[in-house]
Design goal:
Layout: E1 3-6, H1 16-22, H2 26-31, H3 39-44, H4 51-64, H5 72-80, E2 86-94, H6 102-121, E3 126-134, E4 145-148, E5 151-154, H7 171-184, H8 189-204, H9 208-220, E6 226-229, H10 233-236, H11 240-248, H12 251-265, E7 279-283, E8 286-293, E9 296-300, E10 305-306, H13 308-317, E11 322-324, H14 329-336, E12 339-344, H15 346-352, H16 356-362, E13 368-371, E14 376-379, H17 380-388, H18 393-397, H19 400-411, H20 414-437, H21 443-466
Parallel strand pairs: 2-3, 2-12, 3-6, 12-13
Antiparallel strand pairs: 1-14, 4-5, 7-8, 7-11, 8-9, 9-10
Helix pairs in contact: 7-8, 8-9, 11-13, 12-16, 20-21
Length: 477
């Protein structure tokens, strides 16, 4: 397929904080004072990531891939983890059936690019790309649908477990539909093979986490991407200290509140509001939020009450039962990986700015932040369509609503109608001048009727342009 790929994001595409960050806003730098110039300093802080810990991480990553055929570059990158000059460049996203929205792919492409760039600039070290699967989220409704050729397919499941632990049972039926669709539609052999890859993943592996790792490995293994699932008993042991501080003191909350207040003071709200506690607990397969209730804790939505002593015992003896929320997940990441940089989405880069003070107080290494790349992919038919109706790529970047608005002006003619109304007014003025010259006695009454008619035309024009039924919805050929 002949496609045009645009990656020059127009001004205004990103939100307020992301746009300011891209411009190296000095106020934001004071809140998260880490830049690419700090690369060497970040690496030096990983002295605690000694040979034994690297061997520990290597063994865990190796176990993740048991029973899966690996690309040699992935194997090599996992081996490199054991070397003290190896650092990871990480991105992450909650897992989704068939990988999910396009930005899922953009994140992976971005982390590959950044790792390659750093490797070329600083060949004395190793920089390996890592994809962090957010497997502990529990809102299945957020990840169980996909859209193919404009039609939505939804996986119906009654399972009530974290998404990574879901059995993919039933997903093969959707895959069969897609495979059949691929045979009927005029699409490339590569796309048809991807539909078959999805089915292989969902029929050969017992959890959505394992199936997703298989898919990412098949599609991106040749670029050396390592996939990690942090819902792991051994990895969770590194969370013990953070669990205790979050549940049994105010250190975490106070740090997050202070950083959030600093952001607010320079004109930014919170992307994620800090809570008194930032952990969930797994119970009977479900992920339940922990809230403080006086000296004790209450689980939501079950309502179960857990005493302080019992919760402390669980945090000490069974850290694998605990799951960090979105604000503490970055700390977990930095505790278990020798991570140099994180590739953020526009929303993520906002809440990372709420975290630096906590990183500092916990003596956890804070990484450099990169904003993920964004792309606009246009096939040749779409490009011709844009040219025909004078729509620029920048217009399309701003979304269907803006594109439709511009298209509406061109097709149903906001400017055209306005010009014609103006011409009608001018012609009416000429006619009335003639009546005036002929001393027509009822000219004032006639003029009033004419002005009402012009106003009705203008009102009709506005109504037509605002009517959602008149807004063209363009679907690329």
């Amino acid at each position: 397929m002949n496609v045009n790929i645009h990656c020059n994001v127009p001004q205004g595409y990103y939100g307020k904080l992301s746009s300011a960050w891209l411009k190296n806003d000095k106020n934001l730098k004071e809140i998260y004072p880490i830049s690419e110039q700090d690369r060497s300093s970040i690496q030096e802080q990983y002295t605690f990531f000694d040979t034994s810990k690297r061997e520990w991480l290597y063994n865990i990553l190796t176990s993740h891939y048991e029973g899966m055929e690996l690309n040699n570059i992935v194997k090599t990158n996992i081996e490199k983890i054991k070397q003290d000059n190896t650092f990871t460049v990480t991105t992450g996203q909650q897992i989704h059936i068939s990988l999910g929205p396009a930005f899922y792919i953009y994140k992976i492409a971005s982390v590959i690019r950044q790792a390659k760039r750093l490797q070329a600039q600083f060949p004395e070290n190793n920089y390996v790309p890592v994809f962090w699967m957010a497997t502990e989220d529990h809102d299945v409704a957020e990840i169980n649908s996909l859209i193919v050729f404009g039609k939505t397919y939804t996986w119906e499941t009654k399972q009530r477990v974290p998404t990574g632990r879901l059995s993919p049972e039933g997903l093969d039926a959707i895959c069969d539909i897609l495979i059949d669709l691929g045979e009927k539609e005029n699409i490339s052999a590569e796309i048809k093979d991807i539909f078959k890859l999805f089915k292989e993943a969902y029929t050969c592996f017992s959890t959505l986490s394992m199936a997703t790792r298989f898919i990412i490995n098949a599609l991106f293994g040749k670029y050396g991407v390592i996939v990690i699932d942090a819902d792991n008993d051994t990895l969770k042991k590194e969370l013990q200290s953070l669990i205790h501080e979050d549940l049994f003191s105010d250190t975490v909350y106070d740090s997050l509140q202070a950083a959030s207040a600093s952001l607010k003071a320079i004109g930014y709200g919170n992307q994620v509001n800090p809570r008194k506690t930032h952990f969930f607990i797994f119970k009977n397969g479900e992920r339940l939020r922990i809230d403080k209730e006086g000296d004790n804790f209450i689980l939501h939505p079950s309502g179960e009450l857990i005493s302080r002593n019992h919760m402390m015992q669980l945090a000490t003896e069974k850290p694998y039962l605990f799951s960090p929320n979105v604000l503490l997940r970055p700390l977990y990441q930095q505790l278990i990986l020798p991570n140099l940089a994180y590739v953020c989405g526009p929303a993520e880069i906002h809440y990372w700015h709420q975290l630096f003070l906590l990183f500092k107080r916990k003596s956890v290494v804070a990484p450099m932040l990169f904003l993920r790349d964004s792309f606009l992919v246009l096939d040749s038919n779409t490009k011709q369509f844009l040219n025909k109706y004078k729509l620029s790529e920048n217009t399309v970047w701003q979304g269907l609503g803006v594109s439709s608005g511009f298209l509406a002006k061109e097709l149903i003619g906001e400017n055209k109608i306005s010009r014609e109304i103006d011409e009608l007014k001018n012609q009416t003025d000429v006619v009335f001048q003639n009546f005036f010259d002929l001393k027509y006695q009822k000219i004032k009454e006639l003029r009033s009727k004419s002005e009402v008619w012009i106003k009705e035309l203008q009102k009709a024009e506005k109504s037509v342009l605002q009517d959602p039924r008149m807004q063209p919805v363009y679907e690329p050929v």
